[in-house]
Amino acid sequence: MKTNSLFIRVVLCWMLVILPAANSAAQDDTEFVPPDDGYDWLRLVSGEWLRGELIGAFGDKVEFDSDVLEELVIDAEDVDQFFSKRIFGVSVRDRDDVVIGRVEVDGKTITVRSGEETLVYPLEDVAAITASATRERDRWSGDLSLGFNARSGNTEFIEYNMSAGIERRTARSRTTIDYLGNFNETEEVQVANNHRVSASVDRFTGSRLFWRPLIAQYFRDPFQNIEHQGTLVTGLGYEMIDSSRTEWDFFAAVGFNYVERVSVEEGQPTNSTSPSLSVGTEFETELTSWMDFEFSFSASFLDEESGTYQHHLESTLSSDLSGNFDIDVSFVWDRTEDPPALEDATIPEQDDFRLLISLAYDF
Q1: Using CA atoms, how far apart are residues 40 and 323, in angstroms rounded to an integer?
Q2: Is the alpha carbon torsion for 71, 75, 78, 80 positive or negative?
Q3: DSSP codes of every residue in 154-193
Q4: What pLDDT score does 30 carry?
Q5: Cβ atoms 113, 121 nearer than 8 A
Q6: Which one has a higher pLDDT value, 360 or 138?
Q7: What is the pLDDT of residues 261-278, one digit of tens each?
Q8: pLDDT at residue 307 greater than cutoff 60
Q9: Distances (CA, A) of 150 to 147, 155, 186, 247, 354
Q10: Mean pLDDT calculated for residue range 9-17
Q11: Which of 216, 250, 208, 249 is nearest to 234 (CA)?
């Protein structure tokens, strides 16, 4: 009788300890449902949830403002789900209009709820997601890089390079402005001083084809016998690849080119205007979690007085350093097929090569 009583007490104790634990485990396994609290909720593929505000999603990047972690830039492939009660504009390929509504992302699809209409698209067909009511500054991103080298003693030497770029993105447009400059002075003699500013505006059509109504560029390099050069063209582009890791665009454009020379042979004009046929490509890929590669190439076909053919090539390896800081290693190649002779009959070199190492900041 005592043995049975002891057995019953052991069983009761086991039930009191094990059953609540099992019930707790069952509750832990219950799928979390984001509350309707006015915040955006984002779940990573690791199962972690973030609460805050979606700034936007463009290509392979998602910009999210977390209450605790502040502004984050997350790879799109690391995002598993997204829920929001706010209204967003979604740019979908093969659609001429922007889809407006509440957005949910689950796995490989995006659901847009607009009134009584519910639309579902593959994520790979989405070009951009932007909040319909957001701060203007949230549409902008950019980078700034600086390189500097100086030497004194037997040789007096100073050199710096600077590059900067800003971009404004919406669901249907993209505006970019870039600058690249180099200066070198050795033994108080200037041996390099060139500056390039370029700007472009893209209008997305909803397919891989986009319209580039404006491409403008200013270039100055006295050592290439170019006092001032301006190019203004318009054309079309095509997105060859637009994935979570890689973007690859091509473009072709027509317009005109103006160039003013530092000096020319006697009897030759100091400036000329020429029709311009421009082609180019822009490539960007994420090699690893800490290293990116960027490549851009643009070429212009001109008349002989303007140089016949010119191109600008720039490739950059960017390695994460700390936070928003990177180390950039860039190779730049400028070429003019037929550079005109200077006043003393000397002809500038066709090619200029530069290797640049700089500290970059992304914002």
Answers
A1: 24
A2: positive
A3: SS-EEEEEEEEEEEEE-SSEEEEEEEEEEEEEETTEEEEE
A4: 53
A5: no
A6: 360
A7: 998 888 888 899 999 999
A8: yes
A9: 10, 10, 10, 37, 17
A10: 49
A11: 216
pLDDT of residue 96: 65
Q: Would you say residue 332 has pLDDT above 90?
A: yes
Tokens of 160: 């710096």
Between 55-59, 208-212, 306-310, the lowest mean confidence (pLDDT) is in: 55-59
Of the candidates 271, 282, 278, which has an alpha carbon nearest to the alpha carbon of residue 316? Answer: 282
Stretch 26-35: mean pLDDT, rounded? 61
Lowest mean pLDDT among 37-41, 252-256, 316-320: 37-41
SS3 206: coil
CA separation (Å) from 109 to 106, 120, 122, 241?
6, 7, 4, 19
> DSSP for 98-162?
-EEEEEEEETTEEEEEETTEEEEEEGGGEEEEEESS--GGGGEEEEEEEEEEEE-SSS-EEEEEE
Q: Residue 350 carries which DSSP code? A: S
Longest dimension (CA), the chain: 126
Contact indicator for 233, 255 with CB cutoff of 8 Å:
yes
Contact (Cβ atoms closer than 8 angstroms) between residue 116 and residue 74: no
Note whether 143 and 164 are within 8 A (CB).
yes
Cβ atoms 42, 49 nearer than 8 A:
yes
Structure tokens at 360: 């970059």
Neighbours of 124 (CB within 10 A): 12
Cα–Cα dist 138/136, whole Å: 5
Confidence of residue 23 (pLDDT cuts 50, 70, 90): very low
User: Which residues neighbour 151 within 8 Å (Cβ) at sequence distance 6 or greater?
Assistant: 157, 158
